[in-house]
Fold each of these.
Amino acid sequence: VVSIDHTASPLESAAAIVEGGGAVQRAIATSKAYELVRALTDEAGPRPAGSPADARAVAWALTTMRAIGLEQVRAEPVTVERWERGVETAELVGATPQRLAVTALGNSVGTPPEGVEAEVIEVPSLDALDALGRGPVEGKIVFVNATTARTRDGSGYGATSLVRRQAAARAGALGAKAVVIRSVGTDHNRLPHTGSMRYGQGPARVPAAALSAPDADLLHRAVASGSPARLRLVLGCKALPEGPSANVVGEVIGSERPDEIVLIGAHLDSWDLGTGAIDDGAGCAIVLDVARQLARPEARPRRTLRVVLFANEENGLSGAKAYAEAHKAELARHTAALEADAGAGRVYAVRVRAGEGAEALRSALGAALGPFSAVAVAEAANGGADLRPLRPAGVPFVDLAQDMHEYFDHHHSANDTFDKIDRDAIGQAAGAWAAAVRVLTDSPLTPGRAPEGPP
Amino acid sequence: VVSIDHTASPLESAAAIVEGGGAVQRAIATSKAYELVRALTDEAGPRPAGSPADARAVAWALTTMRAIGLEQVRAEPVTVERWERGVETAELVGATPQRLAVTALGNSVGTPPEGVEAEVIEVPSLDALDALGRGPVEGKIVFVNATTARTRDGSGYGATSLVRRQAAARAGALGAKAVVIRSVGTDHNRLPHTGSMRYGQGPARVPAAALSAPDADLLHRAVASGSPARLRLVLGCKALPEGPSANVVGEVIGSERPDEIVLIGAHLDSWDLGTGAIDDGAGCAIVLDVARQLARPEARPRRTLRVVLFANEENGLSGAKAYAEAHKAELARHTAALEADAGAGRVYAVRVRAGEGAEALRSALGAALGPFSAVAVAEAANGGADLRPLRPAGVPFVDLAQDMHEYFDHHHSANDTFDKIDRDAIGQAAGAWAAAVRVLTDSPLTPGRAPEGPP
């Protein structure tokens, strides 16, 4: 259903909203996104869900939202799974012992204190692993050596993040002792990339870890040499009891349609290895910076803008699920939802996922983003991990696609730190976001509910 | 003294030696340097002087020299200082604890097991430290935050490697509890760079470590924030008793002037964090590849080519000193010496340090290197650290300058691994080396002894 409200005040044209040429320069000059990433990463630090740093981040977000003029600022309680890393070492044993840079995958069980030692069997994919069957896998350490493609849209992550998530379940079912994967990353630094994994329903729960790309190369050469390659893996990681965290929410109440909500989200938690600058300090900074701009008295939006900084995106999506549950009665009034969880790169495209009226909205967004050299594309919006629980309610999604060519160089590794943020790029992104969000809050176009199911 | 031997067989022209255009492509196609780096780094691994891996490297070098047809292959014993790393952590303590990526500097004493904790005082240079005097420094952890410039010739290393070497001695003399420096490197990875440091004559021996660049930035912001920044540093490193190692030496005996020696060297040891691919697996590979080419029966040089893979360049220059001492009687017959210790980048220039005849030699080398797009420059050759003890004997030096723009991104860090080697670049370098060495072994030009003293 497309409802065009003819009684609304005349729409400012998208072009007028973004003020034509020079928009990027003005956005960069006026954005506070860069400083917001610095503040969050310096003042909270690495902030795995439920950790003391996560609590610092919640406090920081509440303070920051109030400081930039948001209303209804609150922490909505979320219970989160907790997991912590311990000692982690991997060593190729034999005639030439070599230490390999390794990190446990999130949720993995640990090894016994003395570690697990076994011959390594290498496969290029999960399908190749399944095809081996139990015989060659039983008692071995499985090494899944799949390379992540560098792409602008981050699509290379799809295949290899599935490897990360499922390798232990599938290798464990075949009797493997442990699993190591090539890091899901596009870099060649000796900094392994962590990320969430899950066990299946079966009883086998084998330790799972990622090797840095150079170490995966080394292990590959050792396996390819023909003589058996033996690995010793020691992981001290473990699950902790569930604990408290929170979604942090603030609003700019709409001047004309306060009950209609445009949700802009990001996630407040981060992995523990870096300081969570690109993932997702940048996203938090972008949505806070957009809200800061719209919270100025002279800029108040027509619909309500709601900022949600979700808890525990990384290792369970607890915040996303809690939000959808707590707000289920008002999801029908969420006229659009967007998540910033793609780093600090420039926005180059906008995608929409909506029912009737999607095309008109896409056009309006494309016009608003023209000054930022971003274009509307026909591909449906994905919405981001934290928006997934909103899908069944048909909440329309908008993606502001950011350049992710370099994102997976640092993502989930110790290298995810503030120095990786490019001030100009995040300023452009925040400006493009503000222009697009303004269309969503102020346009008389109300997109119809999005169809369920993929894409 | 320039001796031109008119009885020698007509000199092949430099142009003929390198066969004109296509030389680079042929060099890349036929070089084994890339495979040699792989073999050393995979089969020996990280090889600090006197370690088991160092002994593996010595065995590898002996085997490899014999396999490529060198003569007089031997291990010349060297006693080396030994030092080993232990646990190493650094943490910013206070309201926002942050773990910092840190590594001990070579030769540093450790801290007590519980670490050293103190307020941090930051200075941009050693001069600024000295200027402070004892008052503000006593009882503090000194942070020297000096940035290494990225340059083609590696010259940015001069200033900051001096900081690395001397900071502990100078801060200790002023009563500091410990020293941390910004890593001597040009990257922004969370991988600190180690390297040798030395204490002065005084009794104060304070622990010294390097922070990765992103962590140095973080500490800088903490200090700049105005509230005192406190650091806790735990280093388990310690000196070990001296132990045995060796210079590995092999030769291609000259066909006409076997007593005249052209020395091409590199160092076999490496730091422990990476696998010593660029420092100095690449150098070992280049000189071995040059020797392999000249060892072919149809290619035998007129003078003797001697390959020396020095022990313990990184932390004491024991091999270099032992070589100069053991061979002092024949240093007068060393007509040239070159060291490959600048990574795996392309050769872009040649420098000479010699007495009479230097200019003619420079011209001949420039002609030989023309097909490799490298040029002779007037600047005097430096010779490399392992050649320093040969200076008093006036041994002429030749430098084949390699592109070092990226060298200090990885040097002395865990990132110094085989994947950083560019096959084409090291192939070009090995080809240029071979062309230049051929001039030195076969030209009737014998450069006069080099003057003592700088440069």
Amino acid sequence: MDLTHTEPLGVAVVGAGYWGPNLVRNFAASGRWDLRWLCDLDRDRAAAVVGRTSPTRVTDDLDLILGDPAVVAVAVATPAATHTAVALRCLEADRHVLVEKPLASSLADGRKLVEVAADRGLILMCDHTYCYTPVVSHIAGLVTDGALGDIQYIDSVRVNLGLVQGDIDVVWDLAPHDLSILDFVLPPDRRPVAVAAHGSDPVGAGHACVAYLVLELGGGACAHLHLNWLSPTKIRTTLLGGSRQMLVWDDLNPAQRLSIYDRGVDLRVADDEGRRQTLVSYRSGAMVAPSLPEREALAGVVTELADAITERRPARTDGAAGLRVLELLECADRSMQAGGRSVTVEEVGN
Amino acid sequence: MDLTHTEPLGVAVVGAGYWGPNLVRNFAASGRWDLRWLCDLDRDRAAAVVGRTSPTRVTDDLDLILGDPAVVAVAVATPAATHTAVALRCLEADRHVLVEKPLASSLADGRKLVEVAADRGLILMCDHTYCYTPVVSHIAGLVTDGALGDIQYIDSVRVNLGLVQGDIDVVWDLAPHDLSILDFVLPPDRRPVAVAAHGSDPVGAGHACVAYLVLELGGGACAHLHLNWLSPTKIRTTLLGGSRQMLVWDDLNPAQRLSIYDRGVDLRVADDEGRRQTLVSYRSGAMVAPSLPEREALAGVVTELADAITERRPARTDGAAGLRVLELLECADRSMQAGGRSVTVEEVGN
Amino acid sequence: MDLTHTEPLGVAVVGAGYWGPNLVRNFAASGRWDLRWLCDLDRDRAAAVVGRTSPTRVTDDLDLILGDPAVVAVAVATPAATHTAVALRCLEADRHVLVEKPLASSLADGRKLVEVAADRGLILMCDHTYCYTPVVSHIAGLVTDGALGDIQYIDSVRVNLGLVQGDIDVVWDLAPHDLSILDFVLPPDRRPVAVAAHGSDPVGAGHACVAYLVLELGGGACAHLHLNWLSPTKIRTTLLGGSRQMLVWDDLNPAQRLSIYDRGVDLRVADDEGRRQTLVSYRSGAMVAPSLPEREALAGVVTELADAITERRPARTDGAAGLRVLELLECADRSMQAGGRSVTVEEVGN
Amino acid sequence: MDLTHTEPLGVAVVGAGYWGPNLVRNFAASGRWDLRWLCDLDRDRAAAVVGRTSPTRVTDDLDLILGDPAVVAVAVATPAATHTAVALRCLEADRHVLVEKPLASSLADGRKLVEVAADRGLILMCDHTYCYTPVVSHIAGLVTDGALGDIQYIDSVRVNLGLVQGDIDVVWDLAPHDLSILDFVLPPDRRPVAVAAHGSDPVGAGHACVAYLVLELGGGACAHLHLNWLSPTKIRTTLLGGSRQMLVWDDLNPAQRLSIYDRGVDLRVADDEGRRQTLVSYRSGAMVAPSLPEREALAGVVTELADAITERRPARTDGAAGLRVLELLECADRSMQAGGRSVTVEEVGN
């Protein structure tokens, strides 16, 4: 395989459901890729997605795709339960793989994928889409350059009405977004080390439709996620408190997605004539909303996949990142089973 | 004591700090009350609160107040740690008592107050202010008349910057609002029965400045509170999901404080040729924002106190309601000490 | 030409600038149309718009398109100044025509187009896109069924930063949206009959970048437009006051695009013992936000064009509607030249 | 009269209607003032406003007040039509006067007041309350120090439901707010020089309930006011476009009242090989929301009145400022009578 920049790489998308069409659109629009196949058990649906006149072929047979030598990578956007099986077949056929989040439906399966990819020197990339948005890049920069100071807490609300999934609960459906963002934004020694989770299923779906995760971060701070399929309105808001600055990210407000506040609470212990006293002071300064470019994150994902392949280096959101997300999801599962007890990553790791 | 409607009742306010001035203003403006005293250790502060020219007398001596036979009731707005001592002295001097939330700084203390009041046939009322707002009355009506259907979950966010309290943590400071609202709005068999709490103190205040409470409600649904002194912006938003309707209460949006959505998720198990299948359908109907009157809740509080005294009946938010809030606060304390384990009301009750 | 429903109609788009790509996307996605050509002087741009692999041919030669007998309709999305020339050539070649707003760059030109289309029995349709949105349909329904009562005033704000056009001023750029909406929503006898316009050019663009239009409606009420290329934020808000209900349409708030208020002012003249007195009462009732479907308006435009052609009837937003918009634009031009004097449609009509 | 800082000045308020109680509250709370009288034809209303126990005396007789030698100033908050008569009596009794906006109900009346005050060396101050708010002070600072660059346009929306006034139209009711703000914020040579006004009375109130004013500013820019008593929602939003920065002032958003955008449009005329060409570029930078203190503007008004009296200097919003507002209101009146023709300040000035 000649993987120079100049020639588009052949790619196939598997899965024409909710997310697949977005992958199709971005691969088709990219100069780096030649989208050769869209595979779905429902061939009519796949045909509708690519359009009457597209050169992309439609099939319900993965083998046909893997038999096409021009296909160097496969993007897997099937239901979560089938990620492992599909991805594994592709890896074993020596194709690079991009997998929709979550990487697999269990930590064990995820590890299997990472191992096989490593053994064969293939790129295994997770489609952690948010990590390719301008707003998350900006936040990562603020964390890295110390503008926020020490992180005191993170609170994320990700709620809306539906879609109630049949095969996975609300944690496995929505938390991967937040967990992958935390993984990307935080320094390695500040990543989550334990999870306490509470879920509830008030509509009888068979698994949690409303859930709360308390994540203990390395260093002692705490992150919290509210995940909910039963909210009348859509909310996508993250608060991040830092010792220097604090921010609010409201992803549904394109005119002011990110607000950075020069606010905070400072405590100082004073010794007032032998009497220890805590003095609290508040900073309540200005707010700045940076100007962020509007660009589609998924375009960055498909470019990063091409770059990782051609430069023979791990992708920015590689299999290891996907595994760390899976570890936390497993912690959440175990915690819910144990009545909300905090479960450490170490526990599920062994 | 002659307590007819026609003559104003004598009252004293103890505490001229954050909340006291509001009580002073409302007692002074009420035709039902004659505000005779404002008591504070800082007499200058008290004098400034009543104003140069007010007939209300200022003192730092509670005995002076209790020696005034025209005083039939005392409103206690001192720091939480002193509620019990002050209230007890007033009750033992045969005065009716209105206590700022929380009723006491421990469940044991609260019980003591309730007992003494009961023994002496005195009114003991908690200033659960929110229960006297038009919006909470409206929500209570929606729950009672079944308009919301079965309650599926409740989620409340009560966050802002400061004030970091020295004597109580963020749970004891902010949760009484939400817990008293739940107590008022929910039918007795749906009230909280257990609490799992997670707190964090990233600024070194000596107690939690950020906390999350998961409340198990009678009947199995779940309520969740986010309480935070370290948020750059103020948020006061409650989501309530019901099987018929859902609502969003945004207390900071006076133009649309309450939004009631004809939305929801319905699950139906179908038998499709022997194969059990769960069918999910979504209602995504209109939203109605009722017109709510704008009136000060505290005016309702002081009127209710006068009514309870003259009608010799328990106040709407009586000592028992205050105790139920204290029980849940104690559950939260114990849960935080036990690493987030869910603690039942029954446990703390004995 | 056989124009049965079963076979897609051949169409060409002329102009690959700002709006053309949207037309291309919607014609390509429609089962009613076969998009055969995209024409632009910049062929590379046109090629990029249709995509590497599309069957739609690209050209810079309109004659080539008009020489293709399978093309029954042409959509014109060129700069406003060229609408007339391009549309006229298409009509004279016996093609149905859809023209981007405004229909032409002068009333005289617009009339010429309408005449030629009428003489040849061709469909001439204006792309008044907003008239095909769910929200405008809903408002039209409220007006028609009397739910709003008598219309008291309409106020629309359509402002944002840029794009400062070189060939047309802000009135010709933005007002066609509002004027076409008014034309669609109001009964014929309530349509605008006169315009007073004020414009200003604080950046030296050579024509108005900020403008205000006061429209006198038939029956005496008043509509007002604020049009502005120099606003730091984008606002798209319309207030409509009716004697029964009032509404706010905020097009940038997809979660609550339309709010209908049971509010109003009622005046009654009373005779109080011989003394005439005006009694004012206020209704301040609930607000309802109807659930509106999310669908792309332009899909409705291309379907309506196909329907009008096959059913041999005028399109919903036909040439006559386009002319009425042009009449008002000419009134605005003349009013600005006359220092803001109100100019009637009758004046420009003759 | 001894007017040292140390002793409070005696003051009386005339009018206990909508605004009077606010004046009463602020004079009573101020250490600079001794509020001796509240005068209203409805003595019961006045008594209710001061409260049962206040030392402020209540009367319906202005002579009684003017007979009290301790009263050095009178604040007039009666209906607009009576401002002149009441203020004149006070000035002629050698009292300093604060008048509710508008200063008088005609320009001629206003001039009379200014003359009499000047002749007698008395302070005549207009209660242009907004000029004492932190946000308007901040904006004035931005204009003065050049941070906004040249002002390109100002657009203000001041709408809500009611109160429909009987004696004055919506322009005289609401425009004084905006006109006094413009007067305060703009440099003298940039103040309004002409007004074109359009009003409408769709409910039959006898005068305009909806009005639009186009103000030509000195230097050529334009300001626009939308004034409306018939809006279902309250809006208080001002846009100000400057050549360097632009701002949005949303007075109903206390959490972000002022937003300052580093945005704008720059035009440059280039000479491209003999062909003149206008190049447009857009700045779309960050937004800053300054931290503004929350303090009651009226407290600043009563302090300024005391300062002006003791320092024997004109008040910040003096009679001359009140006259300039009256001139513009008269321009608006004449413009509405003349069908919207622009009327210059010079015309009404002579």
